[in-house]
Amino acid sequence: MSNSRIQLSALEDQQRGRLERLPPSAKLAYLALACEGRLTQGDLASETMLSPRTVRYALKRLKEEGLVTSDIYIPDARKNVYRVNLEE
What CATH number does the domain containing 17 carry? Predict the structure, then answer.
């Protein structure tokens, strides 16, 4: 279990409003990250059964809204690991 897990009911109104404006693929990616914690793009594609291209777009939109952050994936520095942004 990851400490970065959140309860969706605990989302602030501002976060909820930004999430509601996004496409369904971004909402699904956000929910997967909220439940699983930290995931790479490939892991997120496997977890959500979305295409890699759709996951890239969803992550781009989530990052633009400030709902998701990324860090370098230590085992493979060519990849990023994504997580729900808990800071606001």
Answer: 1.10.10.10
